[in-house]
Amino acid sequence: MTPGEQTNNLALLYEIRCMQYFTPDFYLISENRKEPTMRYSLMCKSFNGSEVLDCEKFSVNLENSQYTFSRYPCSASITTHTLPHGQRLDITLSFHEVTTVPMNFSLSMEAGQWKKSNYVLMPGAVYNGNRFTSLPLPYPPYYAPPQNSQLTDAEVITSIPHLDIEKTQSRISLLSGDMASSLCGFYDLNDQSGSVLLSEHQCGGYYTGFTVDENQVDRQASFVLSVPGVRENTQYFFGDQNDGQGFRPDVSAPSQDTGALFKQGETLTLTACVFHWQQISLWDFFKQVNSSKTTLEIPEHFYNVPFYKAYISIKEKYQRENFIEEGYYSVGTDWNIPQQCWQAGWIGGGMNSYPFLLEDTSEARQRALSTLRFIFSRLQHPSGWVFGMYGNGKFYGDGFDSNSDTILLVRKNADLLYFVMKQLLWLSENHHSTIEFEQPVRALCDAFVRLFRKYGQLGQFIDMATEEIVIGNSAGACMAVGALALASEYFQSAEYLDVAEQLGEYYYNNYLEKGMLNGCPGEICQAPDSEAAFAMLESYLQLYETTRKSIWLSYAEYTCEIAMTWVMSYDFVFPAHSTAAKRGVHSSGTIFANAQNKHSAPGICTLSGNSLLKLFRFTGNAKYLQDLHAIAHSLPQYVSLAEDLEFTLEKKYLPPGYMNERVQTSDWEGKETVGEFLYGSNWPEVSMLLTFVEVPGVYVDFTSCTVQVFDHVECYVTQWDQDSIHLELYNPTAYSTMVTLLADERTNARRLTHNYFGNMKTVPLSAGERIQIELKK
Question: Region 303-307: what's the mean pLDDT?
Fold first, then answer.
């Protein structure tokens, strides 16, 4: 932005975002391009519950036209608007009589010459059609394949929505709230073309539905948008099953959906966009999906809770409830449950100490150091690996019902090593002795190297004692790439860097190139997930920061496009009676966890997202700042504050400083849970702590004259000189805060690396206060 402009004008950001979409610069369009084999239909269906009673279907052209149904008392008129690479359709359904049976209305996009190799995408829910081996496993699932086949068998998922690997006919049917964006589509790898059907998540007060129906006999697949959304006959449900098979995910649970009754004279307008792109790569397909997903639904800008207020609330809670007398920060508050005492990495173990090391100067910092000492004096196996779970003097394995306490989810140690390296670097740079940690941390690094040298991969689960991979086929341990890159800097080890680079190529060739990263959470088998995508992004950026090889930056940009498909792009309209609606929650910027656990969540599990800030620094593309804004700005509204406690489904309030991981836009656990929160202390607290120390409230780049506000404050540029900038800050929230400001020159590669909290300027700002400040270059 140019000097003197209001720098956090979100309307301008959205204008820029729209301009990026309407003027795409990455398509190579052939003059003789082959148009997709695509047909379109309008349908009306009537229902008894979720069972279809009758259906009437018209083939239509995407042009201004009108159609009258013979078996339903309605007509449809289509108004079309041309878009680059597609069309916008406003389809108005008019009823000339009252309907006596519940019904819905659909637009279908039908692809001919269909192949199972086509990549089917439903953001936040379905990646490559979720075409994996699906088993009806109880929760938490743990499926170890037969010995000696763990590295070659197909990926396993539980009973979640998926297209079948072998069957000629299969279907995925979701409501809009089941997805991060209201769209579905596919990429044809053979033709290098992509198609998407997009709409709003709500129409006429009804949630829309999206169905992918594959019929290999007819070599056809239908992508269907419906209002009201009706998952016919069955739906995905996670809980205690009526078949007596216990608590588990089940894609064949009875559907609770039905159609709607309409009055004479009533109208319903369904707006949709269809897009088709030719001569593009899979990377370009993800890129265009992210560019177009806000075509119809642009999130609202809001102010809620400042970063510092959220951080201090959680920090006080951590000192009050999360420090165990044995000498470490726990990951939960109920210490009678081992999983809430210690878990390495993943949900915070050895990561939650890092923000306090950087920000605090007294007790919290000493406890952070104590946590590091406890990890490497008490929790490390002789092989060098760190136990995945511990509580009250006993070790536990990550294999759930497995008897061995040496079963380890490798991702846990990858996360742990990455954050331990960041802490060692900070200690070293700030003249603290690290001698006591160096040998045990080297032992952990060496364990990763041995495992990779033995198998050429890291797998998903291993046995620490035998160092054998128990379950492979996962990108879950991909944070090890960044961890070993950092370790190579700290220990000056060429071997660590060599393994990091080989692993980076392995994950690209086996996962990223196929458009799917999977298996980071320990209880989803090998399902696609957002955590692997953001961990991979973090790793590639660290590898680029360490080596300055352009290939890793290229991989990072590709990974970012996949990761951002998991981020909610719109503000879900919660049921009016729900807690989320009463609190005015904005769902945009929250992140779907994975394809099994169908809730969105505050933040990245478990990162700040500062990788997006680094992507901007390395590329100059302001889009990445906007992506980070969406994620970081959303986080604080989910912190339960003493002044504004969050009510839960258990009919009690979350204590101050607690955050719960549920942002329920899906009814995967029952319709009554939509817009509600569960009781309990969860990992988003760590994401918020990390955000405060790694994402500046206001970021200024002197190289490009860019100012980006992430925090819940307003910022205006009043003067921009060669070596300084004058800003006016205003706090529109009800809370006093401490705003962090970071001055940067993005072309100075070493200005921001591992730890830069100490480079930030902090400015106190009372509720409603407006101040003038100067920030020097």
Answer: 98
Give residue 177's Cα distance to chain centre.
15
Contact between 31 and 22 under an 8 Å Cβ cutoff? The reply is: no
Q: Tell me the C-alpha distance between 481 and 459, whole Å.
A: 13
10 Å CB burial of residue 285 (0-12, 13-18, 19+) is buried
Dihedral (CA of 351, 353, 356, 361) sign: negative
Q: Which residues contact 369 (CB under 8 A, 6 or more apart)?
A: 353, 357
> Which of 147-161, 381-395, 662-676, 749-763 has the lowest average pLDDT?
147-161
Q: Say which residue the tokens 């936040």 belong to.
A: 124
CB burial of 392-409 (b: ≥16 within 10 Å; e: otherwise) equals: eeebbbbbeebeebbbbb
Count of residues making up the chain: 777
Percent of the chain with pLDDT over 90: 90
User: 533 and 561 in contact (C-beta within 8 Å)?
Assistant: no
This prediction's pTM: 0.94
Of the candidates 428, 423, 430, 335, the residue with the CA atom closest to the CA atom of residue 375: 423
Read off the tokens for 528: 């696609």
> Which DSSP symbol is given to 363?
H
**Three-state DSSP state, 313:** helix
Domain annotation for the chain: domains and CATH numbers: 37-292 (2.70.98), 699-776 (2.60.40)
